[in-house]
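Duplicate of #3305? Posting structure anyway:
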């Protein structure tokens, strides 16, 4: 890590030369005049309007962006001139370059002259949610950046919005170029229609500068390639010079170089000096955004990216995580307490006196859902463990700790994918609370760095402008000169140990413990099909029978990262079936090795005496136990179901392909509500590689017709080609071995199976 800058640091010998960094945000546009030491001389802000014509829609007028930019630049230059107060220096004539960062992905349909054909579809606009489902269903390789193909695909991104335009505004789409805020602004400043390598990599599903051709072809919109900018420039490349018209409106000289920028948060990484592998930018505000620089590509469930060629040359790949509600929860608590201007100082002082863990109070920061790693917009916030002893300071501290635990969970999710941040550079609201900064460091165990300039995106744009105009040899030299580190917050070893021992594991247990409770209320009854129940979920369970038997714990973690809901554990004794596999000790070891992560271990007993294994499996941490009706029927089956449940596990019964559910007694167990699930094997038990038996589907159809709310599992020969038939028959839980473990992209297969269940219209997620 670079050393802290000191106030005596010598200035570069570039006196009287300046660059302009411009930040095009949601509420307005800001221009800042900077010198080559990164010192901001002056800023100017011009607001613009956002309209909300319908629920989930947000629009802006692109003409407001360029009008606001011209005015903001002119005012900032005038303000900088007043600050310098030196008639021998003309700031307007001394501007060597400018660069713009913008919101992403704010999509514009414009004609060849640069006129917008319709209002911009703003980044936060969610109208394309249906299109997202269609895109995810393609299982295209370009979707690896969306949690390794598991999804979801965000309605904020370019392709969903473009697909919505094609479907819902076909005339506008057909006659227009399709671009975004960044491209629109640069076109109006220079007359060149080019894209940013940053934007296309992080929100257009490009792999570096390579467009997602097969994805567009599958969606039937290959023509979008001709509508997008054909030339893609790296951040820091010169787009072109200011046109005469743009220069006049900005009050600058014609020909001033305009340098390529990118998305505001990613340009903010440059403004924080986060440009080397191992560094991570934590951008805090109403939400948290985690952007890390990686040296190699990685894709995993629960994270976005990695994005290739998305930043600068020293940053080969960028990985992304995010928390939806962080600072907004803190603000909610302030409003709840009727806090005034001094509230934060008071409550921080009070909370600093509360010990680690808020004396048993635990919060979950999902007040507006969870972005990563659970990717669950319907998750909800929790404050748990309240007693009459607890004060407002306890609740406040628990909220701060929950956000920091969420950040640690994201860091651990990244680590399982292969990326571990070595230092975190923080910007935004959290830097104004010494207590919150310290809790961030204590919970994560990582140094947190604070820089001098609070406007990281504008400074990042200024750095790119300086780089593009050859003021510095490379991006490292530009950052070294223009970014000042003023403070390092180091973790307290004792506090870190206390969080790791008690608070963080409790936080990790909250979401899996409560998600099914929330799930029962997610759909209105009127929206459910008549023959289904809101308690059913689409579940995909990779079978460990097909895993690397020498590295089962690693395989479990890999499948969780790929998006598995359950892990299917086959336990065979060599008697009931001609195969011998693992037993309860291995189940216990798997449970231990996955740490605080939630994992549902679905144990299928193909054994002659299942009752003897029930206590040991309960001690090992099994979640569900399935026995065969062929070895335990009648009263023996009833007693076995009761025993499994008494040991705290779900009870399930399985049957071979030739076994009748009606005559075997399975219907009796279901009628008496003794089982939580029925497993219908579509191959003979005992070994893999068998062909799927379609005759079993009739058995599944009969079960579903008789028991609409029963979990029905199918196992054996489940592949992409058979999954839809299983789901249409009524199965809501699919088990597959080689089809998942042997796939190049297991996440894509898991996603396809889950989509097949959902498309069968028999369950609600």
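Output from current build:
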């Amino acid at each position: 890590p670079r050393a802290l800058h000191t106030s005596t640091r010598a200035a570069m010998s570039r006196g009287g030369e300046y660059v302009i960094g411009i930040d095009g945000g949601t509420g307005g546009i800001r221009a800042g005049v900077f010198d080559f030491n990164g010192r901001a001389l002056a800023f100017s802000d011009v607001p613009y309007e956002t309209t909300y014509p319908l629920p989930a829609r947000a629009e802006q007028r692109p003409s407001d962006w360029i009008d606001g930019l011209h005015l903001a630049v002119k005012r900032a230059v005038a303000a900088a001139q007043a600050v310098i107060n030196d008639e021998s220096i003309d700031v307007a004539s001394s501007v060597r370059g400018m660069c713009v960062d913008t919101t992403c992905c704010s999509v514009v349909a414009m004609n060849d002259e640069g006129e917008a054909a319709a209002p911009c579809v703003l980044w936060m606009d969610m109208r394309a949610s249906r299109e997202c489902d269609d895109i995810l269903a393609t299982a295209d390789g370009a979707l690896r950046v969306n949690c390794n193909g598991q999804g979801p695909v965000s309605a904020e991104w370019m392709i969903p919005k473009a697909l919505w335009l094609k479907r819902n505004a076909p005339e506008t789409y057909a006659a227009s170029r399709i671009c975004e805020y960044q491209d629109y602004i640069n076109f109006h400043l220079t007359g060149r229609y080019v894209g940013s390598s940053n934007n296309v990599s992080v929100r257009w599903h490009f792999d570096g500068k390579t467009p997602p051709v097969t994805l567009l072809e599958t969606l039937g919109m290959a023509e979008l390639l001709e509508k997008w900018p054909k030339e893609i420039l790296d951040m820091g490349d010169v787009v072109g010079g200011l046109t005469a018209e743009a220069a006049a409106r900005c009050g600058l000289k014609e020909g001033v170089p305009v340098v390529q920028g990118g998305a505001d948060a990613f340009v903010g990484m440059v403004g924080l000096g986060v440009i080397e592998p191992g560094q991570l930018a934590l951008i805090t505000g109403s939400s948290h955004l985690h952007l890390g620089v990686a040296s190699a590509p990685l894709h995993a469930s629960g994270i976005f990216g990695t994005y290739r060629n998305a930043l600068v040359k020293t940053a080969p790949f960028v990985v992304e995580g995010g928390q939806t509600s962080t600072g907004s929860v803190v603000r909610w608590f302030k409003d709840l307490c009727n806090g005034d201007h001094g509230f934060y100082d008071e409550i921080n002082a009070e909370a600093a006196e509360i010990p680690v863990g808020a004396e048993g109070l635990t919060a979950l920061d999902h007040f507006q859902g969870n972005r990563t790693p659970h990717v669950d917009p319907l998750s909800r916030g929790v404050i748990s463990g309240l007693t009459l002893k607890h004060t407002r300071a306890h609740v406040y501290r628990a909220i701060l700790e929950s956000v920091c635990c969420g950040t640690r969970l994201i860091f651990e999710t990244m680590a399982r994918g292969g990326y571990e941040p070595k230092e975190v550079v923080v910007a935004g609201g959290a830097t104004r609370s010494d207590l919150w900064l310290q809790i961030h460091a204590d919970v994560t165990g990582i140094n947190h760095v604070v820089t001098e300039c609070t406007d990281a995106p504008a400074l990042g744009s200024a750095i790119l402008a300086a780089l593009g105009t050859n003021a510095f040899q490379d991006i490292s030299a530009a950052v070294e000169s223009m970014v000042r580190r003023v403070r390092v917050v180091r973790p307290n070893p004792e506090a870190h140990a206390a969080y790791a021992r008690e608070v963080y594991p409790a936080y990790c247990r909250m979401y899996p413990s409560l998600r099914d409770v929330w799930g029962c209320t997610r759909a209105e009854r009127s929206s459910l099909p008549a023959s289904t129940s809101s308690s059913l979920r689409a579940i995909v369970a990779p079978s460990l029978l097909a895993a690397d038997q020498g590295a089962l714990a690693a395989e479990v973690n890999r499948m969780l990262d790929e998006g598995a809901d359950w892990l299917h554990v086959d336990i065979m004794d060599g008697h009931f079936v001609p195969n011998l596999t693992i037993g309860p000790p291995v189940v216990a070891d798997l449970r231990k090795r996955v740490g605080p992560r939630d994992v549902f271990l679905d144990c299928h007993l193909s054994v002659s005496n299942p009752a003897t294994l029930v206590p040991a499996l309960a001690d090992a941490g099994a979640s569900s136990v399935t026995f065969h009706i062929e070895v335990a029927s009648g009263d023996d089956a009833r007693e076995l179901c009761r025993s499994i449940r008494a040991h705290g596990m779900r009870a399930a019964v399985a049957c071979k392909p030739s076994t009748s559910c009606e005559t075997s007694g399975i219907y009796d167990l279901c009628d008496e509500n003794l089982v939580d699930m029925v497993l219908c094997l579509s191959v003979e038990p005992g070994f893999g590689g068998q062909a799927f038996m379609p005759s079993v589907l009739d058995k599944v159809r009969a079960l579903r017709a008789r028991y609409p709310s029963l979990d029905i599992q199918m196992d054996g020969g489940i592949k992409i080609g058979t999954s839809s038939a299983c789901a249409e028959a009524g199965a809501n839980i699919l088990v597959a071995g080689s089809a998942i473990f042997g796939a190049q992209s297991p996440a894509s297969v898991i996603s396809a199976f889950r989509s097949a269940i959902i498309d069968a219209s028999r369950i609600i997620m």
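Confirmed duplicate; merging threads. The chain has a mean pLDDT of 89. The radius of gyration is 29 Å.
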